[in-house]
Fold:
Amino acid sequence: MPHDVSVHNDIVEFVRLGQKVSLNFTVSLPNSATFHAVMAKAQGCNNFSPQRVADTIGALVDDAMLVEFGAEGSPVLYIGVPFFEQQRIRTSATTTNNRLSDVDRQAYAQRVIDWARRLRADEITVQQHPATPHPIVGKPGDQPYRIRIWWD
Structure:
């Protein structure tokens, strides 16, 4: 299946309205185009600059298994670490379904963490797979699964 590059305007509008009426929501962003359109409409606060997020995230969106944006009192971003090449958002008809090594998954998680630190995120935690009671703070861990980036 070819990579979806269209902007999902209903998601963009949901975020625009959501930030006005709720401090607690998340929505999945299915592709890079929608991610950038959402950041163009998102409200900044404290250390969170949607324009800076959009300008600096680069391929981290396309290489993610999933990306969610929302609010948990303040802006939050969740980035899923893929297990297989085909799970990446940017998959195409030529993408293989090779399993990513633990080293590759840890390296991707570290790139996300380093990026979030540069953007002055207040909390960076990594849920492991299988799920553990408490996420790891500020480092990938052995089996990174879902990275939470939160700006207060």
The chain is about 30% helix and 20% strand.
